[in-house]
User: Fold this.
Amino acid sequence: MAGAKANARVVIVGAGPVGMVCALALNRSGIAVTVFEQEPAPVEDQRAASLHPSTLEMLDDLGVTEQIIPLGLISSAYRFHDRVSHSVVAEFDLNLMRDEFRFPYVLQYEQYKLTASIAKEYGNSSDFDVRFSHAVTDLTETADGVDVEVSTPDGVERLRADYVIGCMASNGETQEMLRRCSCSIDVIASLVPYEHYAKAGTILSLAQMRSEAASLFREGQWSQSVLEELRRAQIEADFRCF
Assistant:
């Protein structure tokens, strides 16, 4: 944060993994942070259930990795599964790259556990303040900072921050947006058979790999036809629902 003010305080909206890791990194750099999260506690779901070698290295630089390794499940095998048959499509032994990675394995440790660990260990001091059941309802930028309005269990509070970082769900968390997203899912489901949708997901995952084998998934005619079917359905869903 080049040019940051002395004794600056940063407000972070959203106590998910992005918000909490961002808060910890700022705090490690000597910057005071306050994190507001509208949920009463970390949401216990199974999204982002695994931490990969590069993520573990980043968290290690923040002093987190060694604390959570005993709490998770380690696997040196990295597998891609077909979503329909559940068969293994590809498998990689990360231990073969132990000279490249500090942590040559995947750690299964769900994101809600990670955020809870950071909040419990660090989020109780004056310069690292984590507040659940606090929803940011308004922001007003001024010449020397940001006025923040927060809905709390005890009523509305207002405070001044030097900077605000938004780490909420990118599509918003309103009832209207939920309705539109549900509409979009229904449209896609009506246009694309589930088997085709699952195959498209597998192709997109494998296509992110930088290898000769992965190019078959990016450039193959069969793969392109499957992805094109999904893209047409997504365009139609956007037109009908958004």
Q: What stands out?
A: The chain has a mean pLDDT of 83. The CA atoms of residues 57 and 102 lie 7 Å apart. Residues 50-108 form one domain. The chain is about 40% helix and 25% strand.
